[in-house]
Request: fold
Amino acid sequence: MTSNSLYAGALAQLLVHWHTACPHSARRAADLLGRLASDERIDADNRALFDAAGEALLDTLETRRQCA
Reply:
């Protein structure tokens, strides 16, 4: 999968999660963001941003599960 496909997929899943609060979409987005964070063809600043965004999504899911 190309970086552009990963970007598009991560953004699409993030938007689904944003509009529906679907935890599966959040996990898919976090997985795709993690794959982008691991892609050495992407500059270090963006990789760090993708990593932080993916971790934040997963943290949000954990917080919601504990509050419910």
About this structure: Residues 3-67 form one domain. Residues 16 and 25 are 6 Å apart (CA to CA).
